[in-house]
Amino acid sequence: MPLYILQRLGMMLLTLWAIVTLTFFLMHAVPGGPFVSERMLAPEIEAALNAKYGLDQPIWVQYLSYLRGIVTLDLGPSFKYPGVSINTMIADGLPVTLRTGLLAVIAVVALGVPLGIVAALNRNRWPDTTVMLIATIGVAIPSYVIATVTLYIFALRLGWVPTFGLDDWRGYILPVFALSGFWISFVARLTRSSLLETFEQDYMTTARAKGLRPGQVLFKHGLRNSLIPVITILGPVVANLITGSFVIEQIFALPGIGRQFVLSITNRDYTAIMGITIFYAAALMVMILIVDLLYAVLDPRIKLTEASA
Amino acid sequence: MTEPILSVRDLKTSFFTQRGEVQAVRGVSFDVYPGEILGIVGESGSGKSITCMSILRLLKPAGRIKSGSAIFDGQDLMTLSEADLSDVRGNRIGMIFQDPMTSLNPTLSVGEQVIETILRHRKATRAEARARAVELFELVRIPSAAERLKSYPHEFSGGMRQRVMIAIALACDPKLLIADEPTTALDVTIQRQILGLLRDLQQRLGMAVILITHDLGVIAEVTDRIVVMYGGLVMETGPVRDLFATPKHPYTRGLLASVPDLRDDTHRRLTPIPGSPPDMAHPPSGCPFTPRCPHAMRICATDLPPIFGIGQGARCWLHHPEAPPSLLPSREKVPEGRMRGPSP
Amino acid sequence: MSDIAPEMWDKLSPSDSAAVTSAPSLTYWQDARRRLFANKPAVVSIIFIVLLILAAIFGPLFSPFTYADQNLRLANIPPAFETYSVADGQGGTTRFFLNASNFNLYEVDAEGHVLGLLRGERKDMLKKSQAFIFGDTTITLDYSKLPARLLAEDGATISPSGWSWNRTYIFGTDQLGRDVLVRQLYGARISLTVAFVATLVNFFIGIFYGGIAGYIGGKTDAVMMRVVEIIATIPLTLYVVLLMVVFDSGLYSIIIAIGSVFWVDMARIVRGQILSLKSQDYVAAARTMGAGTGRILTRHLLPNSIGPIIVTLTMLIPSAIFIESFMSFIGLGVTPPLASWGTLTSDAVETMRAYPHQLFFPAAAISLTMFAFNFLGDGLRDALDPRFRR
Lengths: 309, 344, 390
Description:
The complex is a heterotrimer of chains A (309), B (344) and C (390).
Chain A: H1 2-28, H2 43-52, H3 59-71, H4 86-121, H5 126-140, H6 143-157, H7 173-199, H8 202-209, H9 214-251, H10 257-267, H11 270-298
Chain B: E1 6-17, E2 20-32, E3 37-41, H1 48-55, E4 63-72, E5 75-76, H2 82-88, E6 93-96, H3 100-103, H4 110-121, H5 126-139, H6 145-148, H7 158-170, E7 176-180, H8 188-205, E8 208-213, H9 216-222, E9 225-230, E10 233-239, H10 240-245, H11 250-257, H12 298-302, E11 313-314
Parallel strand pairs in B: 3-8, 3-9, 6-7, 7-8
Antiparallel strand pairs in B: 1-2, 1-4, 4-5, 9-10, 10-11
Helix pairs in contact in B: 4-5, 5-7, 7-8
Chain C: H1 14-18, H2 28-37, H3 40-58, E1 80-87, E2 93-99, E3 104-108, E4 114-117, E5 123-124, E6 129-134, E7 137-142, E8 149-151, E9 162-165, H4 180-216, H5 218-233, H6 236-247, H7 251-259, H8 263-278, H9 281-288, H10 293-329, H11 341-350, H12 356-384
Helix pairs in contact in C: 2-12, 3-4, 3-12, 4-5, 4-7, 4-8, 4-10, 4-12, 5-8, 6-7, 8-10, 9-10, 10-11, 10-12, 11-12
């Protein structure tokens, strides 16, 4: 077990390094320097700025110093806002992103799984058809469409929830819904198909042949096994909730990391883009590791000794 | 004369698929007497497994029991409520399945899977149930039983898993054990062990056993009486010795001819039965074996024969009193002395 | 007892007994097609997609407008309006409608064609009103209290005389007075182009990568799959964003960005298929008969893994459409004045309060398209996946 975690951590660091490198060189492949694009600067000022940010150094020196920064958890300064570090930017946005993200994950599990169970238990009857119809709608409609349309209907027209801001708990409803709508639907569909597949398994017949009660058969034997694939996708779910939050935070004007990211893109704040990307990737990989460990606890067949199954 | 412990009458089961109704079981009747081992034999698709799944109503959603009764201990299992039936399952009737690799839940320890059965049917504390589980593991000869309770199915070999399945089936001292091809998925040497264990346990515990198999060797070795099934129907039934000595149905004869007999040193050639089993979505109106039968007559293609004969009965027009005797290769009379097993 | 005719005991000739009815057998593709066409949502989706493609290709040709034609005087016109008619006292009647959000009056004809902006007198900034003179009749637009109303000379409120669809701009116009319908159709062009080209790029990279990994196997496979694993851990949208930042927005950039990132799933599917098929007997048979690697790949392995590949492709299309519109929505997609469903939505958000129709059309267009491709993908999966064949 500890060996497995160590191996996974090693793999994670390798991946992270690949991401840092890729991101770094991608950002430095942008034609011109970061100060060229928008403002017309006097050459001497630009040179001074370049010197200040170390941009006059050869690229590998810059790369090494950036790596050094990463190791010491320092993502460097912003190009756009002098004196603001990327670390501060992230720290400022984190609470909002974390709160909405966590609520969205809870919504996904608390709504998606039960809906899937109801559908599977009533296969081809109206609860199933209804849930599947809603889920298909939910999977098809892009999150930004859900966000804008619900914002128009519930905030502008009906006035049930505030149009922006999180001062009120009701302010969370629409962003969390827009963020999780797709994944609630996806998890409902996955839970349904996984349960239906489990129902076909021989051990389910064994459980019935032992005379177990329907509830025992469903929850102890059926659900436990069919939730394994659902757990495994929770890693990617978190990833997508994160990327989905760019646009959701922008639409609802939430001061989170996603909005900061989009802002950095429009501002061409390269260190911020780079730093936030790396932060996202790192956060994501930690999430995937946690999910994998959880998975191993649920499924005894997974031995935590080899690197991958 | 003993009362049968299970009496199946005119059982009909169909599967409703996209291709239409597949009539898997088309009116099967047989009795199981206390303390005997009844073998049900047939090719795959003959309806033998479906028959047994129907008795405990364990069919998948597509399968439906259309008619028939199965009287067990005075109760008709076909009309029992689902709740009452679940009191019978695993308690008074145990069941073992073909593939021990998939029949155990991979995410629960084997001990838990035995213990939950005991707790479901007996008033026992967890500790008592655990003690009983250890006892059962010893009974089915799983070494270091107490420690193995904590293991998961994937940590066992196929033979060991089948022993666990047997332990589960025997957990509540059933009066009847239904074993659906319990050795088919196992290695030959393991097959022998499991079969020996079953026979041994049956004698020790005095329960009745229905043993479903397509392996005539298994049948010859352990069963008392045989039901031969083909095309969802019982083709021939009778005490095992009589059936082996003087098979009355051409299908039974064909089955026996297709099996190598190691005791026979006459270098007899194995003769497979030509052709393939009927399509049960469009069952023939006559005897389902007609297209493959070497003795087929006009009537065989049009009319389904009844079962002729008492004790050893065969569903074949050849045994009709008016049938031309010349067609029957060897219609020997079975000597009374060789009759075995209960007969009405 | 003798109710059985004697001839019934005659031996059956082998030819009689051999007459066994067999169900008509279908080939894989016939069966798949039958199952697909039995799936109503999938059929409706196919029809929708075909119509959408036709509309995207030919629709703009029939429009008098192009995606870039601006007419600021006719901005933010809705697709339907309530009309007023005013007699000028000289036998003429003017029909017009009121845009309650920008306080303009637009003249329309009886059929609902928009003729132009009506010029009023000077606005009275204090009383928040504006007079419009039609021959002898004067009408006052009073916007001191919302909603704005029209007053006759005696101060009575004039109520609309009817309503009409907009015949000039069927979907209305946007804030720069561009025709929403034609921009929608151009949006469809962009979305479908990106979707199909990016999916095709994915397809080739995925087939190539996955095919090689699966076919060679061993160490090569392990290394190649490790790379895929690393790529898969990165949130792909994030990388499309980064690539877009590097490339600068535009149609080609977004195709390259999506195409270069989303092949991972395809590579995995192809590899899995190849691996499982490789071990099958008929491939061994082909090899024994001296078939070369290329022949085995193209003749045996690919045709047999085509089912899951098609399903994966169909599922890639909606994700490509989504990513493109997503990128355009956050300002990284196509450059103005080009329209994409994403930019149309994002533009509409700014004016959502006053002109919800501008939001409705692109939102509905992308949602319906996503629906159609999802239903089609589901239908294809059910039709092609052998696990569902029974």
